[in-house]
Amino acid sequence: MRFLLDAEQAEFGRTLDRMLGASDTPSVIRAWADGDPAPGRALWSRIAGTGVFALAVPEPYDGMGLLPVELAVAYVELGRHAVPGPLVETAAVAALLAGSPHAAGAAKEWLPRIAAGEAVVTLGAGAYALDADAADAVFVAEGGTVRLTGGHGPLTESADPARRLFRPDGSGEVLARDAAGAVTRATDLAALLTAAQSLGVGLELLRRTVAYVGRRRQFGVPIGSFQAVKHRLADALLGLEFARPLLFGAALSMTSADIAAAKLTAGEAAYAAARAALQLHGAVGYTAELDLSLWLRKARPLRDAWGTPAQCRERVASTARGRARARA
Description:
Helix content: 55-70%
Shape: globular
């Protein structure tokens, strides 16, 4: 059995990597964190031009259908380049509207715009909605109810300044009730794509750290030649490479337990890579002026978004207990 991306999927990832590599994402991230979404919206349009958002939208609404593996490929690259904005939430809203029969009017209005990159939307399924100030619409899922909110509260502090958190208000139009199944599928997709972003963030942190320890010299030799440094980097690489097949396996199965396992593993691996990057860069790693900080500050918020490690462990354990009872 073959567990590798096919040639077309791999080339899609490389195309995104080249496009984002030429887009000066550090400047985009800093502008977004300062409340200026214009550079981010411009980059959003270029990303949409590659078909990323259309991968989450069904064909009747000008999309390509829900293609989780291709979405995971794309979101690894979005994480690798630390692209800001409600990227995950926009894909989750697309899945939510497409899966809610009673929200057909909203689906007809928003899904073609999402596919084309003309609409930036976000989703609140807990206390906060990401980047509600920069979104064209804020959707909220509470239990089985989906609504379009009328506004949001003030900005809440985040460990990552480019992840701008707002409390959606209680007003707005109810789009669907009894949509619990669609909400579950949307939040599962959000967890999967957050795991993909985490993997990309971790891979970029590792890449930058390997380059740095190859340049930084001590006692006349690169610090990357020291055994302790090699072991630390090897541990980070193993964690990330172990997360990769779990991520794409979950994208194939789209079961809640597999997604939770991928989310847990990718989030923890990225966080471990961030800790290694910070320590191996020494004092310079703490500086906000260093572009490395833009990735460092994403690792922990992504680890906890759309499923904390404890929640993911409980979901995997609960599924295992259920299977054991079924066999008994």
